[in-house]
């Protein structure tokens, strides 16, 4: 299976929204929920901004089909969602590998989504690494969060791509891990 990784263009938005809808909490098949789901909903305008202003949408293609995406953007982009506003306020209290975290030295990675037809085949690692490499040009530290009810995502991010847990927190009655890694791995 040949998979191509690249930055998304606005021409990809329709396919990305279709992939997103298959695994977003409001529209996912009940049977798929055990392998994780995405909470945040996105619309075409937000994805256009993510692509054009943030250069923060990355995709994996199998032929012409988008089989995975990873998002990454400045905290400014994410701040419209209350959960991220909460995380931004807490950044100065967090340290990671010599950095006191800030909106300047870190960005928020995620969500990430891999279609179930290609899970467990390296597509996750591929799209993560591509996104990390691109974002390393702008930021030294990746920050993200994972809901504790998503053990598959937690296993993938801690065992396969080496993210470190930097704290645990509660928001809106949900329990989360907050994780980080350096973007420069050489
Ligand atoms: C999370 C996601 C991106 C990971 O990609 P993936 O291709 O499924 O990841 P992999 O299969 O390579 O790795 C997952 C690991 O978790 C393990 N795993 C699977 N289910 C698990 C569970 N319920 N509990 C613990 N570990 C689990 C797998 O066995 C695998 O490890 P292994 O290869 O050592 O066996 C993908 O499953 C996905 O898109 N899920 C739906 C959307 C989502 O949850 N996104 C993340 C939101 S933070």
Question: How would you describe this structure to a colleague?
Answer:
- There is one protein chain.
- The protein has a seven-stranded mixed beta sheet with strand order 1-2-3-6-7-9-8, sandwiched between helices.
- The protein is of the alpha+beta class.
- The chain has one domain: Gcn5-related N-acetyltransferase (GNAT) (Aminopeptidase, 3-Layer(aba) Sandwich).
- The chain starts with a strand and ends with a strand.
- 34% of the residues are buried.
- 30% of the residues lie in helices and 30% in strands.
- The structure holds coenzyme A.
- Coenzyme A (COA) binds next to strand 6, helix 5 and helix 6.
How do the strands of the widest beta sheet line up side by side? 1-2-3-6-7-9-8
Tell me the number of structural domains: 1
CATH topology: Aminopeptidase
Using only C-alpha atoms, the radius of gyration works out to 15 Å
Report the top-level CATH class: Alpha Beta
How many beta strands in the DSSP annotation?
Answer: 9
The shape, in one word, is globular
Distance, first to last CA: 28 Å
What is the annotated CATH architecture?
3-Layer(aba) Sandwich
Structural class: alpha+beta
Tell me the strand percentage band.
Answer: 25-35%
Low-confidence stretches: none
Task: Count every helix, treating DSSP H or I runs of 4 or more residues as helices.
Answer: 6
Mean pLDDT: 97
Roughly what percent helix? 25-40%
């Amino acid at each position: 299976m040949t998979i191509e990784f690249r930055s998304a263009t606005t021409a990809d938005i329709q396919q990305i929204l279709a992939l997103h809808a298959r695994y977003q909490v409001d529209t996912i098949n009940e049977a798929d929920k055990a392998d994780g789901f995405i909470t945040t909903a996105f619309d075409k305008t937000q994805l256009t901004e993510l692509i054009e202003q943030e250069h923060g949408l990355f995709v994996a293609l199998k032929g012409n089909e988008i089989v995975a995406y990873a998002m990454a953007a400045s905290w400014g982009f994410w701040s419209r969602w209350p959960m991220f506003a909460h995380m931004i306020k807490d950044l100065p209290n967090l340290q990671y590998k010599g950095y006191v975290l800030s909106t300047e030295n870190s960005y928020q990675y995620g969500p990430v989504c891999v279609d179930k037809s290609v899970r467990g085949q390296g597509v996750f690692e591929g799209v993560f690494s591509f996104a990390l490499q691109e974002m390393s040009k702008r930021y030294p530290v990746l920050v993200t969060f994972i809901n504790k009810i998503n053990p598959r995502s937690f296993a993938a991010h801690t065992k396969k791509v080496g993210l470190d847990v930097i704290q645990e927190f509660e928001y809106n009655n949900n329990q989360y891990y907050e994780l980080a890694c350096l973007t420069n791995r050489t």
